[in-house]
Structure formats: C-alpha cells, structure tokens
Amino acid sequence: xxxxxxxxxxxxxxxxxxxxxxxxxxxxxxxxxxxxxxxxxxxxxxxxxxxxxxxxxxxxxxxxxxxxxxxxxxxxxxxxxxxxxxxxxxxxxxxxxxxxxxxxxxxxxxxxxxxxxxxxxxxxxxxxxxxxxxxxxxxxxxxxxxxxxxxxxxxxxxxxxxxxxxxxxxxxxxxxxxxxxxxxxxxxxxxxxxxxxxxxxxxxxxxxxxxxxxxxxxxxxxxxxxxxxxxxxxxxxxxxxxxxxxxxxxxxxxxxxxxxxxxxxxxxxxxxxxxxxxxxxxxxxxxxxxxxxxxxxxxxxxxxxxxxxxxxxxxxxxxxxxxxxxxxxxxxxxxxxxxxxxxxxxxxxxxxxxxxxxxxxxxxxxxxxxxxxxxxxxxxxxxxxxxxxxxxxxxxxxxxxxxxxxxxxxxxxxxxxxxxxxxxxxxxxxxxxxx
Length: 435
Ligand SMILES: [Zn+2]
Ligand SMILES: [Zn+2]
Hints:
By secondary structure, the chain is mainly alpha-helical.
C-alpha cells in the first residue's frame, strides 16, 4: 500500500480547514454522515439503544480527545500506526493468528510427534471406540481454549482497530474526502454501516470457530501436509512453493468469487456483500456465512494436499488478509512498486460500484485472461452478469446516463496517473451509436 496514504495527506484536523467553526465534534460528524448519505434516516441515528453495533464508532464520541493526542504525533508516525493497524486487523480478524502461533510453536518443536514413535494420536485413529467418541478422536482436545482465544482476539481487534480506522479516515478526514476516498461524493448510509457490522460479527464467529478448530487440530498432531523443518523437502521446492501457494490461493479465490456472481448464487448468497456500493473496512467480513466458510475451507486445501512449509503459507495468507482490508477500505491505496501484480484498491472498489466485473483480488491478471477486467466501452450494472458488461452502443440512454453519473463520482486520485481512465467525454459518447 502506498501513495494512498500519502495522497490522503494525513493532516491533523486542527490544520485542516474545517466545515464548521469549531473542531468537528462527534455530533457534527454524525450530522455530516447523514447529510452525505443517499438515504439517511434520522430516526435510527437518534434512537440509540443499549446495545447498538454502531457503538463500534465509539471513536466518534472520543474524537476530540483522540485528536488532541494524535495532533502531537508527527505525520509519518500516524501513517505508520494506521498501516500497522490495518495489518493487525487483517491478521487477527478471522482467528488465523492462532494458526500462525500454532505453526510457530511446532516449528520450535512444541507438540511435535516423532516420526518413528507410536504416538497416542496414531493409536486413536487405528481403533476408534464409537461409544466413547470424544473431541480427542478428532485431534480437537482442549478446543474450548482455542475457541475462546480466537473469538476474543477477533472481536477485540474488529471493534478496536475497525473503530480506530473508521475514526482515522471516515471521521477525522471526512471533509477532505476528495483527497483519499475512492468515491468521495458517496457515503455508505448509517443503516448499511450497522448492517455490515451485524453481518460481519456473525461471520466472524463462524470463521474464528473454524480457525480455532484448524489450529487445535494441527496443534494436537492431526494429519496434514504441513512441514516445519526447512530440510524436510528440497530448497527448490521451498522457493517454488511461494508462487505455487500464492497462485493457488488467489486463483481459487477468483473462481470462487466469480462462481458466486452467477445469478442463483449471487441472489441467494453473494448479494449480501454487494449491499455496500461504497465498501469500508467493516465490509471485508460482511459476507454470507455459507459463502465465507466455503471460501475459508477452500483456502486451507494446501495444508492437506501439498507439502507446505508453514512460513510461505502463513506469510501469503497474512498478505492476502492485509490486502482484503485495503481493498475494501474505500481509500485510494495503491500498490508498491515491488507489487507489479497487485491491483490498487480502486480495482475492488470498482467491483462494489459496478458489481459483476473485476473478480480478482491480489492479481489483476486473472481478470485480464478471462475477459472480466473492466473495459471503458462497457457498462456494468447489477443485472449484467458474467463479468463482460454491456457495450455502450447496445445500452439504453437511461443506462448510459446512470453509468456516466457513476463514472463521474469516482476519484481521479485513486488511479495510477491521477486521471479518471474510465471517464467518457461527450464527444466520445456521441461517436458511439447510442440507440
Ligand atoms: Zn463480488
Ligand atoms: Zn468485496
């Protein structure tokens, strides 16, 4: 992630021209949010009940106090903290950190089963007494500890870091949206923010439970193909396994995502994730529970199908989770020079704005190869399935007008050359056969 943060110019609010005469209070921020929303509903923001998932925006309440502390920090420290926060959130949100801890412990030799020894686990699998079936038979003894650890860290990070990022960008720099936001004129409504937090919270419970089971299973010596000693397989394979794992994880995610964009699966499952046309960091896990579990299961296949060293697998998984947050942040983050395969955040932001296009995540090449990369001469709506869109020359005038309005609402700073590369001038449009 680069330029985005730089472009976002993390100016303390005290230096920034404020919309109001005083520094922005939480009440004012809420008001701005409502004013900027397409369909704001004043009732829901005023009537806050005892339990309200929007309490995650508790940072708004303490915005002034936070600002006092923050304004003392040099800008680069602020940027570094925000970057670390995104990474931490990505690494911990679904409980995968526990898997990393377990792998690391095994690497250090804890819980390793000697190859020639007759371990208890081997005996249990040989003769299972079904009358006395227990978690131990599935290598899941002490699961409750893993589960409590995974869930408590997941929820703490989700609300604390998610709340911080919300404050850092969406509250603190709200009046400078054109400097950092992919869709600066459009904001997710408070109702949808609440919705994504509720769905995200439910999905977190499932994904953390799954991560806890997997970490517990591996920790207890459950059969898998992960190895820990560097010399268990050749060094050639160790180096080769990096691109193999990376490509598997990314290409599998591309296809899973694309399959969930076929009409039946889209309407019954994936549409839920597409309620957010302006995604935020909270949108990452706001996915139908069936879909998110399906994806999580598919992504652990290398742990059972390939001799996988834990270092490349965990590093790549963490990289992917980090970018999952970046891609959904709604902020104009851009890939570093050393990531020529990595699309900028606007790529997935486009996916949320235009629905059935740009299905990939950490390589844009899959969309290029399969013809699902966004094209300038095509329009994409929630009804144009399969990623190919509709030629402008075949679209109706209403469709074109709606699409042009969407294109104009994008931020040029979110693109590489700071130009709206998909913008079509009136002249260009007239050149096309409209009807
Ligand atoms: Zn999608
Ligand atoms: Zn998404």
